[in-house]
Automatic annotation (TrEMBL):
Keywords: Hydrolase. GO terms for molecular function: hydrolase activity. The lineage of its organism: Eukaryota, Fungi, Dikarya, Ascomycota, Pezizomycotina. It comes from Fusarium oxysporum f. sp. rapae. Pfam families: Hydrolase (PF00702). InterPro entries: S-2-haloacid_dehalogenase. This is Uncharacterized protein.
Length: 161
């Protein structure tokens, strides 16, 4: 529950900062609310309960999380059909790329782009534009785990899945 709440609140704070012109990297927002989340969870002295070293250990091991079942097969089907697969993330490209690499999926670094590059977070439409422009005039499809992400990408000019 804590992990889910941590991500949800971090995404909200990240988004609100971005849409009000105060963009911050998701990783920085995520780390900055760790102790607040512990306090909200009922831990009266969060900094006595956990240290900055504990936080670094936790976030350092996110790349070890397994991907959803079927991701490798899905990406291979797309590649076999001639699609070039890109990763567009609100997170750090090295961190997110690590999810794939640690699960045996090759994802070239040059095929990643982060909201950090433009300083505009999802779901702001301007956040989707740099990759859209980078991909040129070919047909561009956008698939995401979140409907808000896919629908924003479609509004920005992608076809959606």
């Amino acid at each position: 529950m804590l992990g889910y709440m941590w991500f949800e609140i971090s995404e909200r704070e990240y988004t609100h900062l971005s849409i009000t012109g105060r963009y911050r990297r998701f990783f920085d927002v995520f780390c900055s609310i760790f102790y607040l989340l512990l306090w909200i969870s009922g831990i009266k002295e969060p900094r006595s309960f956990a240290s900055d070293g504990d936080l670094a250990y936790i976030v350092g091991h996110f790349k070890d999380l397994p991907l959803r079942e079927g991701v490798a097969e899905c990406l291979q089907l797309l590649r076999d059909a001639g699609f070039t697969v890109w990763g567009f993330t609100a997170g750090d490209t090295e961190q997110v790329r690590g999810y794939f690499l640690n699960n045996g999926i090759d994802m070239p670094l040059q095929n990643f782009i982060s909201c950090d590059d433009a300083g505009v977070g999802k779901p702001a439409l301007n956040g989707y534009k740099p990759l859209l422009e980078r991909l040129g005039s070919d047909e561009k499809w956008f698939a995401a785990a979140h409907m808000w992400d896919a629908s924003s990408a479609m509004k920005a000019g992608y076809k959606g899945a």
